[in-house]
Fold this protein.
Amino acid sequence: MSQPTLDVVAIGNAIVDVIAQTDDAFIAREGLSKGAMQLLFSTEEAEALYAKMGQAVEASGGSAANTVAGIAALGGRCGFIGQVADDQLGEVFRHDITALGVEFTTEARSGEPATARCMILVTPDGERTMNTFLGASQHLPAKALDRDLIERGAILYLEGYLWDPEEPKAAMDHAIDIARTAGRKVAFTLSDGFCVDRHRDEFLELLDDGRLDILFANEDEIKSLQQTQDFEAAVEATAAKVPLLIVTRSEKGAIAVEDGTRCAVEAEAIDRLVDTTGAGDQFAGGFLMGLSQGRSVEDCLAMGAVCAAEVIQHYGPRPEGDIKQLVSARLG
Amino acid sequence: MSQPTLDVVAIGNAIVDVIAQTDDAFIAREGLSKGAMQLLFSTEEAEALYAKMGQAVEASGGSAANTVAGIAALGGRCGFIGQVADDQLGEVFRHDITALGVEFTTEARSGEPATARCMILVTPDGERTMNTFLGASQHLPAKALDRDLIERGAILYLEGYLWDPEEPKAAMDHAIDIARTAGRKVAFTLSDGFCVDRHRDEFLELLDDGRLDILFANEDEIKSLQQTQDFEAAVEATAAKVPLLIVTRSEKGAIAVEDGTRCAVEAEAIDRLVDTTGAGDQFAGGFLMGLSQGRSVEDCLAMGAVCAAEVIQHYGPRPEGDIKQLVSARLG
C-alpha cells in the first residue's frame, strides 16, 4: 500500500448553515433543547421554523466539513465526501470547500430533496441551538464513496450525525473497511448528546469491535455514551476501548487519554464569546492537524484549543482569522 | 390623500451578497477597481470570479434593501419593492426582509435569470470591492410597482443602481410620479462613483426637474456628479438643486445642507474596522429614521453616524447589534 498523500479525509453531512440571533424566550416558546441539535423531518416543519426566525446569514457548515475546512486553513491537505443537491446552496457548499483547497469529488444529486440546511439559533450567551433538515445529505450512497480518496488519507474522520439517516450509515461501515484495509487510522466524533442517545448501541459496538483509533467527544456526549452523570467514570470506561480519546470541556479546556496516559489543556483566553458554533469541529481540526504533523498529544490539544477559541469569537462555523499564525504564536 | 402609514418605502435591486475576505494582490490581479461596484453581465464572468474567490458567507443585501432593514431595526415601518427569482436565494432574500417586519409584496419571477448576487471582496483594510450580477433584479417591471405601498410611505427612497438596467429605470420614473402625486417626499442615493459616471445626465435631470427632495451621496459620487475634484464646489452646485443634501465622508463624518444651511457630524469612534459594506446604506437608514421622527438635521446626521459605525464593525451589510439602543445612548 502506498503512503497517504492527504492528512485527513472526512465524510459528513454536506450542510449550509442558516444562522440567526435569537433570545432564550424564542428557544423556550418553540420547545427547542438549547445547545443541542434536533432533526426536522418534514419540509413543512423546516419552513415553519425558518419563517419564525429573524434575519439570517448563510455559511457552509456540516460538522466534519467544518473540521477539514479548519485543517485546510492550517495548511493541511484534505478530502471530503458528502451529498449535496444540484441547487444554489449545493453550489455554495461546493464552492466554499473547494476554495479552501479541499478535494471534494462527490457528485451533486439531481431533483428533490434540496441541499441540507441547518437553522442555527444563537442566544446572547453565544450558545447555538441547531435544527437540521438533512435534505440531500441523507442520501449519500455507498457507491458515492471515492475509494481512492479514502485510501489517500492518513486519517479517515467520520461524524456521528451520519448515523441518523439510513443510507450514509451503511456507507460508513464500508468506508471504515476501506480505510482499515489500507492501514489508515479511523477517527470519529460523537457529534451531540442526543445523537449518542439515538445510536448508543452502534457507537459502543464500533468501539468494542476496535474499529476506531481516535474518538472525539464533549462532556455531554461521553456521559450519554456511558449513561452516567459521573464524568470521570465515563472517561475511564471509554478510554479503555479506544487508543486515543479526546474530550472537550468548553471553558474548562480539554483532556486526552492515550493508552492510559492522560493530559489536559486549559481553554484559551478570549476577548468576547460571540457564537459557539463550530467550536468542537475546529478543536478536532486543530488536534488532527497536530497529529498529522507528528506533534505530542499535549501540543495537539493546544492546537485544538487555539482553533476553537478563534471560531467562537465570530459568527459562523469555520475560521476567519489566520489560525496558522495563531497556532505558531502559541506553540512556536 | 390619506396620511402615510409607513416611514419609508424603498425600491432597489434585490440582491444576496456573497462576502469573502481577500487581499490587495487579488484585487489587482483581477483588474478590479478597489472600493467600487462593477457589473458582471454574463453568467460565465460571474462564475469565473466566484470560482477564484475564497470561502464566502451569504447575507441578504442590496443597497436600498439594507437601508430599510436598518430603519426597521430602529423601529421604523417600511416597505420594499424589488425583483427576486423563484429560487433558494430569492427565498433567502424574502425571508430576511420579511423577518425584519418590512412589507415586501413583489412576486418572485419564475425561470432564468436567477436571483441577483453581489460578490463582495473585503480587503484587510475593511474596504469592499463589489461585483454584481444583476440577474432577476434587472427585470423589475413597472407593473410590479405596488401603487398602494408607494402611496403609504412618507418617503420614497430609490437607489442610483436601479438606473443600470433598463426595465427598473423606466419603473422608477413611474414610481416618482406616484409618490409626488400622493404628496410624498422622494429621496435618492447616488450609489457609486462609477454608477454616477454611467448615468450623470439622467441624475442631473432628476435634480434639475425638481423631482428629488432628499439626496444622499459620498465624496466620490458628488465629485463625479459635478465632474470636479473640488469637493466644496461639488457640494455647493448640488445643494442648489435639492432641498436636502447629505454627503457622507467616511472617517471625516458627514455633512448636510438644507435650504442653504449646512451642518456636520463627526464619525463615531469605533473599536475595529472589519468591513465597510453597508456603511452608506446604514447611514441613510439612520438619517431617514431621524427625519421620520421629526428630529433636527443635526440629530439625523448623528443617527446616521451611529448606524454606520455599527455596521462596519462586523461582516455583512445590515445591523447585528441593537442600533435602537445605540441611538438612544447617543441622542437620549
Remarks:
- Chain B touches chain A through 28 residues (CB under 8 Å).
